[in-house]
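How a chain folds remains the central question behind the approach discussed here. In the encoding step, the backbone of a single protein was reduced to a row of integers, each denoting a local shape. We regard such an encoding as a compact summary of how the chain folds. The sequence in question and its structure tokens are set out directly beneath this paragraph:

___
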Amino acid sequence: MAPSLVTLPEISAVFCLLLILLVPFAGAGLALINSGLGRSRSAAHAMVGALCVTAVAALVYVIVGFAWQGAAGRPDHGLVVAGKTWGWIAAEPFFLRGLRLDLSPAALVMLLQVFSVGLAGMIPLSSGADRWRLGAICASTTLLAGWTYPLFAHWAWGGGWLAQLGANCGLGRGFVDGGGSATIQVVGGLTALSITWILGPRRGKFSAEGMPVALPGHNVVVVLLGCVFAWIGWMALNSAGAMLFLSVEPGRAVLIAINTTLCAAASGLTAAVVTRARFGRPDASLIANGWIAGLVASSAAAALLKPAAAMIVGGVAGILVVWVADFLEFRLAVDDPGGAVSVHAVGGLWGVLAVALLADAGPRGQWMAQVVGIATLLGFVLPLSYGLNWLLDRVYRQRVGREGELQGMDLFELGAGAYPELDIHGDEFLQR
């Protein structure tokens, strides 16, 4: 039997709606971080890309995405295995037909998902920075919002087979992902890994000997401001997700906000200590990535953690984000300018695992439900995302040509830069 959404009292539904309306702050934060960690000659392109992703994701999700995802307790297509029904895809009409757009739980889920799928689509932007064409960004987002994201979201949040692991197999509460560590962050992070593999590294990133060359972001102040916006959006995202998908009471929002903050704080400070020990000085961009990795890791279990456990989750995330970023760059020659893979994919996987290790998630067997979810992400979602984007690249080349990369994405694709005084007059203009 599939889980069902719990009917919310009107005052709780209004509170949940207000939380959902704060979630776009997380998108604004990611957009600023992506722009600041890229080059100045592609800064406007990064921001335009974020707006385009948000727009395309919302339109595609409303047209077809929600039809595949649905909500717990609503119609879906199931497969009968060993006498038990396992939901694999929703059976909703396109264009939200038949869905009452009010304060009902299903409508609130749909609204939250319109914002959440935009967040997932924004994550690959940082991996493709300085070389990903705007048209390809929109096309890739269409695939993510129209198929990859809603399919996994149905399994985890829409009453699908991952959510049914508890009822059908006795594995704890089934797969637990209150705020989207897996559904938003890992799906987006694995898509980012696919994109960076397909696009290849930026020109000049690796020397002839294969050693990486530092290409620092152009505005770390914008990056750090993005961290503040993301923090606000994440507290709302984790709280609204826990109310809708874990059926926690609204009063738990206080604990969720505290745990979200503690995860981010512990992760950011741990990244500062690790970079200080490794490089002699704290690295601002890695501290920012550590902060976001803590937010990412908090999402799955913020409603279920004790504050001390939240600090542990964040501390581990801060170590992982620095270590994995170095491993990808120095060992695997992966050029990920914004650290999306280490922050969102690895941080999200750790958050999912932390549910079983550190959270009060319920009966025995929860760890196996979480492992099954992780295996599904790595064994199905990653190949699916890579395959879809590889096919897209065969039809519509995703990487900009050499001229565009050398000129900068702003001038080449938009016809104007984010900093026109530098493009037109050069440095001598600023020295007058």
Remarks:
- The longest strand covers residues 84-90.
- The first helix runs from residue 10 to 20.
- Residues 328 and 364 are 35 Å apart (CA to CA).
